[in-house]
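The instructor's notes for this session suggest beginning with a concrete chain rather than abstract definitions. Hand out the sequence below and ask the class to guess, before any prediction is shown, which regions might be ordered.
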Amino acid sequence: MTTSEMGSLNRGRDETEQSDRLPITALLALALAGFVTILTEALPAGLLPQIGAGLEVSESLAGQLVTVYAIGSLLAAIPLMAATQGVRRRPLLLAAIIGFAIANTITTLSTSYLLTIAARFLAGVAAGLLWALLAGYAARMVPEHLKGRAIAIAMVGTPLALSMGVPAGTFLGTLVGWRACFGIMSLLALILIVWVRLKVPDFAGQSTGKRLSLSQVFMLPGIRSVLFVVLAFVLAHNILYTYIAPFLANANLAERTDLVLLVFGIAALVGIWVIGILIDRHLRVLTLASTALFGLAALVLGLAGDDPVAVYGAVGAWGLAFGGSATLFQTALAKAAGEAADIGQSMLVTAWNLAIAGGGMIGGLLLDRFGTVSFSPALLVLLIATLLVVLAARRHGFPSS
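After discussion, reveal the predicted structure:
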């Protein structure tokens, strides 16, 4: 072999190695953005008595800080992404993070309930924009065969926030006050702004000729299948997650709700780790397995919901199934949407928030009319429908590797 041939071979190896390297620093910045988003959304739920006292309102009114945040995300995601298709991606990402910094700073300093509600709505709008950007942004940083793994890293902030951030924030809020918690969130957002500006690459928006309307994106092959799966799977999750405390009362575990949710959170972290390793080769199989595992957990909770050991085991399986679900669904939608990934992700954000709201409403109706025994059958109906749609979406949506 000649010297020039050796040089070409070495260059080829170097290029292959570089193509297999993930931009970890940039992806972790996206993960922190997701962490800040989830923590900003969920933190008030653990601090309602303190927030109510601080703003001189009832706990039920304080609880609307969570509701108005979800409304902001629900209303903003699709219109904002449709209106900003041509805008460069990094300035758009920075605008969303700046929105969190402003909203959390106002929440920290405000003594007015109405002003705080307005700040929370702004935070929800920022969340709708950010969630629509994250998966597509992560996917654009890497070659095709690493897209799933990149999205998994970018999404790791979500289970971290739910399993560790919210309990830690609640504990910290009882020690130093709820305003200090939101002040820390503002500081995190400021750090994140600098991090994104220095380490996250910028990408161009879509040119006019390549932009698709909402209806065109919705009609792309696979999009509707993925959106249905998101809606049904997340609805099943939120029916149980929202009303986990009354459900656990049947097994005399109501006072151990925090420990049960810790088991869920740890299992969810394991789930997202497993998904991150395997997703680029086994997206379809992993989606089917996650749905089936969640269904098995729901069945066990229905048949042995009064047995603490069975409950802990089923909750662990549920967490394992749910942990990587956001990564699975966002990766599937990014692949189905192609160049219109950001618009597709905004639809996913909307479907996800509809499922959150629907879980609260449907779960409440089931609880009031039939009790917690009705949860398992409802979950099984939703998960069987999810499984059938994934099975049918063999060519588009959840294709075989």
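Then share the key points. The chain has a mean pLDDT of 85. The first helix runs from residue 3 to 19.
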